[in-house]
Amino acid sequence: MGSEASTHGDVYSYGILLLEMFTGKRPTNEMFNGDLNLHDFVKAAIPERVIEIVDPVLLQETEEGQTSLRSHIVRECLISIFGIGVTCSSRSPSERTNMDGVIPNLHSIKNKLLQTPRQGQRQL
Asked: What domain of life does the native source organism fall in (predicted)?
């Protein structure tokens, strides 16, 4: 916002990128006018309405024949990813997390997804 470039700005951009990728909406989407923006849209939806805001393309693979355990894990992972995006894109730079905290969280989410069997797979 008119300041010098900093890692806080990079974290903000990363957060917005996560929100864009997982909602399929750009910050310039016509639905974001007035006081509504991508950050606030996602923040208001998590955790209860996370499935409503996720890009439907991301859910296509997961919906077909999905077990209830896998469905629950996917939902929890989406909540975590959106939470990271919201925290990274906080208005105040001092409220933003740093990437040292983001990276382990993303690895944890990935590991949780990879350890949850899909239909027809046996758990190791």
From this structure: Eukaryota
